[in-house]
């Protein structure tokens, strides 16, 4: 086995390990967080329901159900073998995913407005919802124009934001577990820090993936074919889809 094929195998293994962890966490968090909003009973809600707003629980339910669906569908859309084997299924799931994101994001704007949580976390939710809608719109527009590689970039960004629902809860659970070691640490501070950290870290990880798995292979191909000087973004509108 050559060094190149060895590193290809290692990269594939690493990709599948990350994919597996992402899928398991996405399904796990959707399975844990969404059911309280299927019952129709506001008392089952994990966040306090605003007693002055009759629609608050409904907005949480309309947010959580499609949010959970997007969380579960997302990882499967990144598997190139599935895309190649059944492009129609990829398109169908892609449409369901994007519609789910739009519905969940709009409902989350209401849920944030009615929320009894603090100002800082609500600002984080507003920013997250707007970025969620923007990246979904870009992902849709690029694929309608046939810009496959750019579509992939925007979908990585969009799913990283969807996945903030997972990392938020991981940070929150961790924060609550260590709370007793930090006297004076309030729940609200842990919630705020978890919300902001989930956005920041996920965005950084997504950008790392975009550079390493999408831009770097394009640059390598260009170098190996000894093409003329690269034009920034030129290859991103092509149909090349590097990665597993
Ligand atoms: C990424 C964009 C998202 C935004 C902007 C967002 C926003 C919000 C907001 C504002 C609330 C109310 C929180 C409060 O009152 O303190 C909330 C709660 C909730 N969200 Fe999201 N969310 C997002 C993604 C998701 C996803 C992908 C899921 C999928 C599971 C999800 C599931 C839930 C659930 C179940 C609740 C109720 C609180 C709980 O039971 O933990 N959210 N979200």
From TrEMBL:
Keyword Membrane: yes
Transmembrane feature ranges: 14-34, 54-80, 92-113, 119-137, 158-178, 190-211
Region (Disordered): 225-244
InterPro entries the record matches: DUF2306_membrane
Keyword Plastid: no
Alphabetical UniProt keywords: Membrane, Transmembrane, Transmembrane helix
Pfam family, one: DUF2306
Protein name (record): Uncharacterized membrane protein
Lineage: Bacteria, Bacillati, Actinomycetota, Actinomycetes, Pseudonocardiales
